[in-house]
Amino acid sequence: AMEKSYVSMFLLLIVISCALAKDAKKDTKDTTAKPKLPQTLSRGWGDQLIWTQTYEEALFRAKHSQKPLMIIHHLEDCPHSQALKKVFAEHKEIQKLAEKFILLNLVYETTDKNLAPDGQYVPRVLFIDPSLTVRADITGRYSNRLYAYEPSDISLLYSNMQKALKLLKTEL
Fold first, then answer.
1. What is the per-residue pLDDT across 81-107, written as a single tens digit (0 to 9) for each?
2. Residues 6+ apart with CB under 8 A from 76
3. For the chain, first and last CA: distance in Å?
4. 129-151: string of b/e by CB count within 10 Å (b at 16+)?
């Protein structure tokens, strides 16, 4: 019986190493464009969270995992973005709740006009449900920039994240 379990363990190792080799190969192709450092995708919004790389990947993962998608549009040289990022990354409850989302932060605009319901400003945060509908009803407190949040609005952003998750449960 021992030999049999050795054989199955060995096969498992082969499968794992093949999968890793495949990933490594895929990576070298990408890295020629720009070297990928660990956790670059978070851009400081939560280094221990799993961030998607592209809008397309994020939509795919939201649909297939049945998790809502949270998209943060920001710019590295925008003081408002930087200020929001700091409180977002340091807010323990938000970081915990964020694990229930597919996450994407973007420093460029997509061609999808649905992601800019009232304009292309930063920072702005939008939620998309697993049916890939933009939740335009989940807004911040500013009537001229519905999806903008200031650092002082962090608790509102937290409750909006809860709202995005809650409506999910009732609708599905």
1. 999 999 999 999 999 999 999 999 999
2. 43, 82, 107
3. 47
4. bbeeebbeebbbeeeebbbbbbe
For residue 133 the two structure tokens come to: 């509908």
CA 116 to chain centre: 17
The rounded distance, in Å, linking the Cα atoms of 69 and 129 is 6
The model carries a pTM of 0.76
Alpha-carbon dihedral angle through residues 104, 28, 76, 98, given to the nearest 10 degrees = 30
Alpha helices by DSSP H, 33-153 = 55-65, 79-90, 92-97
Residue 31 — pLDDT band, cuts 50, 70, 90? very low
CA distances from 97 to 93, 151, 159 (A): 6, 18, 10
Domains of the chain: 55-165 (3.40.30.10)
108 membership: H or E segment, kind and range? none
